[in-house]
Amino acid sequence: QVQLVESGGGLVQAGGSLRLSCAASGSIDMINVMGWYRQAPGLHRELVATVASGGTINYADASLGRFTISRDNAKNTVYLQMNSLKPEDTAVYYCYADIDDTYRSRNIYWGQGTQVTVSS
Fold it and tell me: What pLDDT sits at residue 91?
C-alpha cells in the first residue's frame, strides 16, 4: 500500500504565498512522477505541475512564473511553492504520484486534497 499525505493549504489574501507539501510512504520501489493537480468547484481537475524522477518539470500555463515545484527524493516528498496567488487559484489541490511499488506494480495515487482559498 502507498499513502500520500498533503499539508500546507489554507486561506491567503491575493498576492500572498503558500507552500504545499506531499509525502509518499508505504511499499515504494520508485516514484516515477510526483506533482499537483487542482479542482475548483464545477470544474474538471487540472494539472498544476509535475516533476519526474530525472528532474524534468512540467508546468501548466497558469502556474508559470508564479509556482515552483521541487522534489526531495530522499524523503519521497514533493513541494509546491505558490507565489503571487490570485483568487482564481482557489481550489482543492491534490497530490499525484506515479509509483512502482515493491510488488512490481505501477499505479497512480492521489492524496486526499488540501483546500487553497485566495481572497480578493
Answer: 98
> Mapping DSSP to helix (H, G, I), strand (E, B) and coil, where does residue 54 land?
coil
Instruction: Check if the beta carbon of residue 19 is closer than 8 Å to that of residue 79.
Output: yes
Q: Which residues are 109's β-sheet partners?
A: 97
Phi, psi of 22 (to 5 degrees): -145, 120
Residue among 18, 20, 9, 37 nearest 98 (CA): 37
Cell matching residue 45: 481537475
C-alpha to C-alpha distance for 79 and 70, rounded to whole angstroms: 5
Q: CA-to-CA distance for 59 and 82, rounded, in angstroms?
A: 12
Q: 49-76, pLDDT tens digit by residue?
A: 999 999 999 999 999 999 999 999 999 9
CA-based nearest residue to 115, from 93, 83, 97, 85: 93
Residue 83, helix vs strand vs coil: coil
Strands 10-13 and 28-39, how do they pair?
Answer: unpaired
DSSP state of 76: T
